[in-house]
């Protein structure tokens, strides 16, 4: 029997040659989840001048020892005190307001005693001053190419005065579900039919990875019908075609023949993974092919392990293939593993000192969606791993 391709080798082959797609400009307000196609350089200095970090009084710290200070004005955010601070003077100041020239300290308002225009203190002042450029300076690279833009990154880009930014084009992912047994949600299934659900889960994983989805629907187990689906994906100019089901070796598993008849160059189609052994990888011209298994959990796990990193790589993410597993402790005894990397659905808790504990679900059948929704992680067992006891270290991959 041929040796199965390891998960690591399979991922390396999926990512091979997956360079960033074209770049385009996106308004900042619509750029959440997009990936920078170029370094983002600050167009201004933040803060532009020294500002107060607290409400209180700007003054010279040494002047307080000489007696009461005279309050000569006010500095507010966006409207600073116009003059320079002279010896024996203080200025009322608010958080974010420019610090007057000559001031070197801020007396907190709760430590201030004011009688008419005379200021004394019940406690020493503190620096409480944000220096000009404390956050970033004009011309500095604050966000680098390949960064995925979340809420914090969008805020930083806005603060740097960017209204639009260069991002990688979203990969276009076409999805084909195959099987005579499938009907769409809301339909009335026949006695031996089931509801199509893999397309929704895989589409969500792909969207979370930054993709644009073209769901082509359900196709019967028929060569001509499946070829029609592949042709539709090419017409949609998909960067990646994801097929669901029909990837195994049964008489009704026709996706590989249909893809071959359309001209697919096959890379591999079986890997040492549980769940997810029958995984197709190939190319049809510029369109990459990932054929995922039909069992829901297998399709879900394969989409996490292979599709999401591929989509990140197509957007220029330099960490697309990074190992995202974390250390945890086994919450129960684990049997010895055989020849495939096992991704066991598991719940997460913490022990008395805050360490993560991963406990495998009692049932690991790849058709069980209920077990998947009740899990927070996949407990990863390497091929040939010996039996492990409760409390032994293990590796986990957190579920989205």
Low-confidence stretches: none
How many DSSP H or I helices? Answer: 7
Order of strands, widest sheet: 7-4-6-5-9-8
Summarize the amount of helix as a percent range: 10-25%
Q: Percent of residues in beta strands?
A: 25-35%
> How many strands?
26
Can you tell me about this structure?
With 400 residues, the chain is α/β, with parallel strands linked by helices. The chain folds into four domains: 7-21 and 170-313, 3-Layer(aba) Sandwich (Molybdenum Cofactor Biosythetic Enzyme, Chain A); 25-44 and 139-168, Molybdopterin biosynthesis moea protein, domain 2, CATH 3.90.105; 51-130, Molybdopterin biosynthesis moeA protein, domain 3; 326-398, MoeA, C-terminal, domain IV (Beta-clip), CATH 2.40.340.10. Helix content is 18%, strand content 30%. It is built from seven helices and 26 strands. The chain has a six-stranded mixed β-sheet, with no helix packed on it. Strand 23 and strand 24 form a beta hairpin. Helix 3 runs parallel beside helix 6 and helix 4 (223-235) packs across helix 5 (255-261). It is elongated, with a radius of gyration of 30 Å. It starts with 6 loop residues before the first helix and ends with a strand.
């Amino acid at each position: 029997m041929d040796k199965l391709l390891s998960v690591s080798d399979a991922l390396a082959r999926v990512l091979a040659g997956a360079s960033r797609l074209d770049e385009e400009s996106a308004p900042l307000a619509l750029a959440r989840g997009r990936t920078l196609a170029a370094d983002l350089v600050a167009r201004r200095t933040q803060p532009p001048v020294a500002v107060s970090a607290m409400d209180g009084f700007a003054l010279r710290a040494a002047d307080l020892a000489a007696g009461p200070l005279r309050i000569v004005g006010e500095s507010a955010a966006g409207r600073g005190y116009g003059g320079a601070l002279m010896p024996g003077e203080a200025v009322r100041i608010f958080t974010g307001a420019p610090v007057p020239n000559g001031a070197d300290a801020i007396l907190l308002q709760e430590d201030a005693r004011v009688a008419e225009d005379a200021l004394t203190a019940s406690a020493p002042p503190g620096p409480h001053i944000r220096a000009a450029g404390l956050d970033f300076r004009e011309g500095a690279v604050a966000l680098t190419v390949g960064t995925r833009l979340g809420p914090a990154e969008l805020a930083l880009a806005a603060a740097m005065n960017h209204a639009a930014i260069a991002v990688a084009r979203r990969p276009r992912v076409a999805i084909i579900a195959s099987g005579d047994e499938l009907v769409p949600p809301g339909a009335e299934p026949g006695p031996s039919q089931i509801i199509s659900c893999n397309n929704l889960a895989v589409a969500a994983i792909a969207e979370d990875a930054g993709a644009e989805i073209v769901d082509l629907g359900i196709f019967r187990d028929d060569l001509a019908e499946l070829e029609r689906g592949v042709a539709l994906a090419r017409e949609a100019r998909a960067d990646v075609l994801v097929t669901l089901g029909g990837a195994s070796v049964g008489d009704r598993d026709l996706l590989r023949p249909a893809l071959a008849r359309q001209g697919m160059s096959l890379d591999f189609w079986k890997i040492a993974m549980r769940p997810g052994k029958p995984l197709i990888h190939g190319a049809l011209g510029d369109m990459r092919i990932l054929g995922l298994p039909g069992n829901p959990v297998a399709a879900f796990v394969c989409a996490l392990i292979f599709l999401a990193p591929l989509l990140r790589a197509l957007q220029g993410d330099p960490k697309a293939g990074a190992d995202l597993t974390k250390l945890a402790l086994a919450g129960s005894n684990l049997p010895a593993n055989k020849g495939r990397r096992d991704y066991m659905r598991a719940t997460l808790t913490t022990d008395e000192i805050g360490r993560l504990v991963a406990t495998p679900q009692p049932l690991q059948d790849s058709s069980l969606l209920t077990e998947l929704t009740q899990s927070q992680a996949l407990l990863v067992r390497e091929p040939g791993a010996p039996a492990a006891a409760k409390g032994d270290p293990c590796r986990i991959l957190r579920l989205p």
